[in-house]
Design brief:
The structure is a homodimer of 159-residue chains.
Chain A: H1 5-19, H2 28-35, H3 39-51, E1 55-58, E2 64-67, H4 76-83, H5 96-100, H6 105-122, H7 127-130, H8 132-152
Antiparallel strand pairs in A: 1-2
Helix pairs in contact in A: 1-4
The structure holds a DNA duplex (30 and 30 nucleotides).
Chain lengths: 159, 159
DNA sequence: TATAATACCTAGTAACTTAGTAGGTAATTA
DNA sequence: TAATTACCTACTAAGTTACTAGGTATTATA
């Protein structure tokens, strides 16, 4: 499991699709403008999303992309796994003496953490964000805590 | 919030410190051997961890690193934020017409997701993993599901 | 039928990040 | 005094990110 700007681009683009679902297909050109991402890079991302069947393309004028399945069937984890290369999880390539040596235990702890993270992100769907009447609520709610959030995401203060 | 191999190295190294807490300071040389990470790269990581006061160094023979505070006061989020550069979250650099234009809403949805992720990772501490009698339990529990996990973390199957 | 709009594809590349090497100095223990 | 460790700086190879440039295939519409 990896979380980077690439994954963020994919998730926000999928949110765009979900939010505008009822207005027909959304063009990559539009998303490019809204999100400030180059069209060609979006094409690369959507190629992966399409192969994972998370979106489907519609060619020709009036075309674009639609969600490949209902928004409540698309989790954040699915999106991230579709576009990001997976992390190689262990350094002790399954050598058994490492396990017996008890040092590899931390690898298992890490896998446990990764699994919890996966479950968490797999439990959040696009529908959780864009259920129409609630979008504004989330938005407002977000406003009220946005200053706290930006503080939290600052780099840790250095001594 | 960013999650990469760099963050994983930091988290597993911190787990190593926590697990071996009672045996005195742990040397980077040891961690380097256990985790297969170069000594100098570990030094770079621990420089950041030290500045964030998550570890403290002990010089001289018999020295090494200790946790900077109790394991139940160190969250996974703190570790990751200490070593990873933070992601620049919005592309519409606060331009208000973007907000009014309703397109920037997805940025708020993303921030909401980031915040949930932060809360999740901030709610998990090192102590959750290494409370002594439980380490083996987690390990065993992990074994039973490890095949499922490795399946889940494979790249998404392509059509 | 012609044109435009779109998806869809390949190749190349600049900038950045990751992870490493090399070569030190400072503090501390034995 | 010697060995061991943290701690620091500079440099670098490999990989990833995000972009540019150039196409082809499909389809709606004028």
């Amino acid at each position: 499991m990896k979380l980077s700007t690439k994954g963020r681009y994919a998730v926000t683009a999928m949110m765009d699709l979900a939010v505008n679902d009822r207005d027909g297909p959304v063009t990559l050109s539009d998303i490019s403008g809204w999100q400030g991402i180059s069209l060609s890079y979006l094409e690369q991302l959507f190629s992966k999303l399409r192969k994972a069947r998370l979106v489907e393309g519609v060619r020709g004028p009036g075309g674009g992309y639609r969600l490949g399945k209902p928004a409540d069937k698309i989790s954040i984890a699915q999106i991230i796994l579709a576009v990001d290369e997976s992390i190689d999880s262990t350094q002790c390539k399954g050598s058994e003496d490492c396990l017996a040596g008890d040092r590899c235990m931390t690898h298992k702890l890490w896998e446990d953490l990764s699994f919890r993270l996966y479950e968490f992100l797999n439990g959040i769907t696009l529908a959780d964000f864009i259920k129409r009447p609630e979008v504004r609520r989330i938005s407002v709610q977000q406003n009220s805590t946005s200053s706290q959030i930006s503080r939290m995401f600052q780099p840790v203060a250095h001594a």
